[in-house]
Amino acid sequence: MSFVQQVRALLSRRGMSVTELGDLIGIARPNVSATLAGRHDARSNTLDALAAGLNAQWVLVPNEHLAAVRQVLAGKGTGPDLEAPSAAEMFVKARQ
Hints:
It holds the Pfam family HTH_31. The chain is mainly α. The protein has helices at 3-14, 18-25, 29-37, 44-53, 63-73, 87-95. The protein has one domain (3-73): 434 Repressor (Amino-terminal Domain) (Orthogonal Bundle), CATH 1.10.260.40. The protein is 61% helix and 0% strand.
């Protein structure tokens, strides 16, 4: 999914319009629309502002990790089991 597609998806999830996003970040709606339509190249500070206005971050993902990141974003990836005891906790418990 491209950056622009992600911005559009976040706009939808956040229930925001392009105008509301523009007002929030201080960029005129026509300029936000032009950026999202690919009619001009956006500067990095514009991309930072778009992400911040959507309460998000934009990051570079190395291609070798892209499949794993996509799975996590789709809710299909696995992460650490935060409920599992740590090695130190297991060690202390075994010594008791």
